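Hey, can you fold this one?
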Amino acid sequence: MINQYFNENQAKLLEYIIKRKKAGRDDLPPIQELSENLGMSVPTLREQIEALKILGILDARPRHGVHIKPVDFSAGLKQNAIIAASMDLKYFFQLSEFRDRLEQAWFINAAERLTAQDICDLEQDVINANAKLQGNPIQIPHPEHKELHLSIYKRLDNLFVTGILNTYWTLYEAVGMNLYTDLKYQNTVWQYHERIVAAIKEKDFDQGQFLLGEHMKLIYKR
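Sure. Predicted structure:
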């Protein structure tokens, strides 16, 4: 499978990484040893390692060696999404619409998996956000906003759903949506959040899903 989609050197290194990972190892041998194992020159091997670092597959730091990172579907998507939105902001709104539909489609499945502690953490996000909005000076509760949404889906065992959701929030920040300062808008958003969390706590998942959909329409009125 790998050979069909990557060049020879990339495929050789990726196959080695996959075998290593399946064997329960997340470290790679020193560059010279790896070069001999793969029959690849050291300069070529370094180039391939750099390419896989960009894709979020490897982590290489001085005195720490090369390590295999946990699989993160969003790693390659984030850079491409930022480049696309830099060329035309319409691509942010396209991803936003995709994310809206994805969250709504998976909401009930995700909410049903949350623990009592998870729900307490969501309630605390709401409390912290409201404290920022009522503070002096007022602060935009963006960290709480991002945390609340991602936390609802944290128990899903789906690499692709969570990867796309993480990509969305990276792009949200990259285009400056986290800097919006309209207090009325922020209060409305967090009223919805509070009601969504209450619905989850009451196990009224259909109501929570409905409120989520209504809340997501707000971004297009900004």
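The chain has two domains: 2-68, 74-221. Let me know if you want another pass with a different chain boundary.
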